[in-house]
Structure formats: C-alpha cells, structure tokens
Specification:
This is Phosphoglycerate kinase. The chain is elongated and about 70 Å long. By secondary structure, the protein is of the alpha/beta class. It folds into 2 domains: about 5-170, Phosphoglycerate kinase, N-terminal domain (Rossmann fold), CATH 3.40.50; about 185-380, Phosphoglycerate kinase, N-terminal domain (Rossmann fold), CATH 3.40.50.1260. It is built from 14 helices and 17 strands. It binds 3-phosphoglyceric acid.
Length: about 400
Amino acid sequence: FRTLDDLDVAGQRVLVRVDFNVPMEHGVVTDATRIERALPTLTTLLERGARVVLLSHYGRPKGKADPALSQRPLLAPLEEKLGGRKVAFAEDCIGAPAEEAVARLNDGDVLLLENLRFHAGEEENDAEFADSLAQLGDLYVNDAFSAAHRAHASVEALARRLPAAAGRLMQEELEHLEKALENPERPVAAIVGGAKVSTKLELLGNLVEKVQLLVIGGGMANTFLHAFGVSVGASLCETDMADTVEDIVRKAKQADCDILLPTDVVVAEKLAPNTPHDVVAVGEVPADKMILDIGPMTAEQIRKRLGDCRTLVWNGPLGAFEVQPFDAGTNVVAEAAADLTAEGRLLSVAGGGDTVAALVRAGVLDRLSYVSAAGGAFLEWLEGKTLPGVQALRDSAS
Ligand code: 3PG
C-alpha cells in the first residue's frame, strides 16, 4: 500500500478516515488516546499544506441522526491536541453542509464532518454514499486500523474511488502486526485470556498454527480444564465446548504448538475487592468457589517460558483484573513481558479492548514493543482474516 510519503498533498483536499470512537461521558471525552494517535498523520498533512477533512464514526446510531452521538464534542479536545488550531465542523458528512464547509477550507485547515453512521449507506458500504463522500476530496488517507475490519463505505468503497494511502497509525499498526505474526522471529508465544472460548474460537484455531506456545488464561482456561475432566467448582465455564476444545488441542498437537494451562489458581466465593481468597492446585477447586486468577506458580511458569521466546502476541487478561487482588497474575506476566522487551529479548505486541485496560493497570503500556489501539480489528487480525479496509488500500496501490 501507499503511505503519506507517496502522496503530493499540498493544496489538496485530503479525506482522512480516523477512528474517533472514543469513550465519552455526558458529552465529555474521557480518554483521548485515539485522537492522540491520529496526530502524526494530521500534523504531517498540515505541515505539507493539505486541506484536511476528517471522517469518523461514533457509536452505533444505526443509520439515523442521533444528537447523543454527535461528533461535535470532539472538537475541543481535537483543537487542544492540535496545539490550539481551529477545527471547523460540518453538521452532516455529505450534501450541502459538508460541501460548503469543504469549499471554505484553505491550505492547512482542518474540518471535522458529523458522524458517518448517521447515514445507513456507511455501514451498507453503499456506492452512492461513497460517491458523495468522494466528491468532498481529492485524496484519501485511511488511518483507522481499528475500523479496518468493517467493510463500510468510508473504509472500503471510498478507498476505491480516490488515490488512497495508509496514514501513519495504520502503517505503524500493520508493520508491528506483521512482525508479530506474519513474519515473526521464533519461537512465538501467544497469551490468550478473557471470559469465553466461544468468542475466540477462530482466533485460537488460527494461533495454534502460527505460534509455538499458547498460554491460556482467564475464564476460557476454565472451559479447557472442564473439557479435560478437571472440576472447576462454581467458576465461569462453557460446559458445552468440550468437543471444540478437543479440536483445538488436536490441531495444536499437529502443528507442534504447546498449550500451557494454569496448574494453580486463585479461588474465592465471590468476585469482590479483597474478598477472602486461596491459592489451590488445579483439580482442588472447592465446589462452591470460583477461579478468578492464575496462581503464582502458573505465573512463574509463564514468565520462564516467555524467556525462551522471541515474539509475543497478547490478547485478553489472565484473571478478573478489574478487581484486586485478581489482577496479580496478569500483572506478573505483564511485568515479565515488559522486562524481556526492555532487555531486547522479546518483541511484544498486545491489543484488544480489555487487554489495553489490563496493561494500563499493570503499568506496562509503554514498555511493550507495541500496543494496538484496536479492539475488534485486532481480534479479526489474530483470527487470520483479511481486513476489508487493509485490502482496499493494498488493491488501490496495485
Ligand atoms: C472500535 O471501537 O473498535 C471501532 O471503532 C469499531 O467500532 P464498531 O465495533 O462499532 O464498528
């Protein structure tokens, strides 16, 4: 695919697809990370004299205008991050309001369009809607890796209508993801946690063929243990997944992928802060208790095994990390990964909704090689899927 360096943007209207789907409470942005991550692209374009038109979705308004999901509240944080530069706003992302606002732009100006998903055509990847967007620009830049798994008009169809390039964040995401899984230094480890096996079937199926060590934690480890006939007490567990687990284990054996499950666990009667808890060996979980974290022995085992690996892909916490002390297992492993990364022995890439929150809590966010800003897109990439937004960029370059 092309990058910003392949476009001559001076004086051009550049449509930049960003992902400003940021957490907001009562109209105030509570985490501006996604805005910050778009800055390298925006400042590059502005320095080069482009007229920048920002396109994003916000929430899921289902094709209808919804004032509660307006992008107007993004203006203030965006202007602040741009060093006080004024950002114009258009009440609609297509039609007269957008066209007039674009026509008023001078070189080095920025315009934010209203929520793309106020039009059903966005999610339908509708040709006419994409044409209306395309009219607004001369060039197209996609900097929204985290929306690249959506075959939506601003992500897919638009890339096929204008000269297109990847923005800096998109480029950075793709480079790191490729180093981690498509072309990695071996041995490769994957840590997969989270509540349910059922939501990560394809992901596990793809990973066992690509990694040499698969560490399973979180609620989904209970499902594995249960499938092996180990009692998990009152733990969260998908009892109907035994055949699926067997399939995954068989596939792993064929591919020479070692699956590491907890050997000791932290149990308690309920999930509550600092509730009484014990460490027990797997197989000795009392009937009335729940597994809420991996035990210290397991954490140590993971730490040791990571020491033999060159690459790590991480998705999902290893325990109920939101509630102390059940964040301990995730924290120990995160610390180990950060140390190995600092020593230059491990390339570590993490991503997916809860994972980032868990790594922030563990205090290692800046100490891994790369943490993706994407949730669903990161998961689909781990599943081995081709992301429509990435494909469209590749096609447009060839
Ligand atoms: C995200 O927040 O992961 C992206 O913005 C995609 O949002 P969506 O799941 O509503 O498509």
